[in-house]
Each structure stands twice: as structure tokens, then as C-alpha cells.
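On clarity, I found the account of how folds are encoded harder to follow than it need be. Since the whole study asks how a given chain folds, the encoding of that fold should be made plain. For illustration, here is how one protein appears when written out as sequence plus C-alpha cells:

:::
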Amino acid sequence: MRVTTRIDGEVGGLALGPTYAVLDAIATAPSLLAAARSLGISYRSAWSRLAAIEAVLGRPVAVKTKGHGTALTPYGAAFHASLAATYRRLGPVLAAEEIRLAGALHRLQEPETGRLRLAASHDPLLLAAAAEIPGVELAVAGSLDALAQLRAGAADAAGFHYGARSAPPAPFDALANDPALAIHPLFDREQGFMLPPGNPKGVGSVGDIARLRLRFVNRQRGAGTRIWFERLCAEAGISPATILGSRMEEFTHQAVAALIATGAADVGMGTPAVAERFGLAFHSVGWETYFLAVRTEFLAVSDSDDSGRAETARRVREPLALLLAAVADAARGSLGYASPSAGYQSAACG
């Protein structure tokens, strides 16, 4: 079932959605008549809406000039830009909520099957796959937070990553030796710097970000992407605290990209697919493996065991198997994703 959401709100009784539509049409059309046609309304109706907007704001937002049609005033252009920035920033949030709500409705309409409580670091491919599988309840968290939920019994599995293909840093290095957990590589993915279109500053390293005093958007503490960025800083001999904006935190790749796309920031880390979606430049810093940690108690249950605990394990394994298959299939055909490297799998998972 497809779910769509929209942004509602008002200022002084003025509905923001219709107001933005009128201003956007005027900003992109050569005349008010053309703007009205693009909105599917009459010329008279367009003038009426424009007059209502100006009455509430108390300032002219558009001006009609002889031979040049109708254009936004400086005030109108600034108001339009502010609304556009708000819609761009909220867009990724609404998209994520659409996926979550669609998944919830899908599960409600399907017969009761398995139930997998999954806490996972944010990844668009994983979120989209999980939303299509009945019984998967996904909570987005940083890599370390996801693992903490798994150990506390609040999750049955945890999705995590920690950066480029190298020896796992602490505390990830202890996971492979934990008999209570099974570590499964889900996919490889590329990450890098997301930048304004064309990469006008020629950014190619953490050193460039520090030297040029660019505004960086960080991920929240405990996020695998943040751990990777801090390791890049350490390798370059740079303290993350000296990076301008390093304390500005966002929780998803889309939120980081939205800030860059609106000019509120200059650079942040993310995947090439997200950069492409927001029309940003992308400079790769490497590939990493995204892992799934699962409680071994759910995997080591025989078919003859009829205990309640065994039944719970079998109910978890059904959506887990579907999720693994769906993610593997999606990774093979998505920009910036690939099947996990076999050699790295054995080294990382023990």
C-alpha cells in the first residue's frame, strides 16, 4: 500500500502549502497568466491569492512590470527561498515516515507471521527492503546504539558499520568473539563527501575541509559514519573539533544532504545514491561493509524443539531470511552498493 504525506502549516492564518505553490509558480513562469495556468487556476484567481498573501504579510511579494511580466519582489523571493529550504529539509523526513508507515500498514494487513525487532544504523536500501517485509520492526539508531539495544534484549538483531575495510576498531573488534552473537555481512557500500554541485572548492580530503574552513555536517555520536570520519581526521593528524561545524549533528544521510543542498552547509559524509538524489557532487573516500549481528539463540534451534523459546526463534528466523534475501538482491543493482567482499568477510567476522 502506497503512503504519501505532505507538509501542512500556516503563518497568520496563511496556509503554507498553497502560498508556496503560488510563489513558486511566479518564480518559474514568465508571467502571472503562465503561473496561473501551471497551477490550473484562472488569472483572476491567481491575483486574488496573491492579494491574500500580501494582505497577511503586509508586504508586496510580487510586482508587475511592463514588458517583463510578473516577478517576485526581493521580499517575495526571500520568503519563497525560505519556504523552499523548509520543504527540502522536511522532504527526506517525510519520505522516511512514508516508508515506515507503509511498512506498518503492510504488517497490519498481513496474517501474523514472524516478528524481527531490528535496530540498525541508517541506510536507505535497508530501510526500503525492511518496509516490504511483514514482521520486521525497524528502529533507526547509530551503530553503537543499535548494538547496545541488541545486548540489552530490546532488539533481536542490529545493523552496524564502522568505516573502511580495515581491522574493526574497539568495541566492534570484540563482536566476532562473542558466542552469543552471529555476525553476517549484509552488503558493501561506498561512502564519501557530499558537496555542492560541481565540487566548486575541489574538496578531496579531510585536510581540504579543514584548510578551506568549510562548514561540515556531522552524524550523531555512535554513528558508524561519524566513527569513519573521526578516523579519517586522526589519519590526517587533524582534531575533529577544529573542523568548522563538526558539532552540527544529523541522524540520516538525507538530512545531511538536505543541509548541503540548501546552502546551510558545505560538506558532509554520505552515500553516492543520496548525493545523486539531492543533485550534489560526490567524492568517494572508500568502501565499507555493513553488518548484521543476530542472537545465536535464534539460529541454533532444532525443528524437533517444541519449547516456547524455540517457537519464538523460528518466528524470528522467517522475516530474517526474507530480509537477508531482499537486501542481497537490492544491493546487486543499486548505485554505491555491492555484495560483501568474501575475503574481507572472513577477516572481519572471524
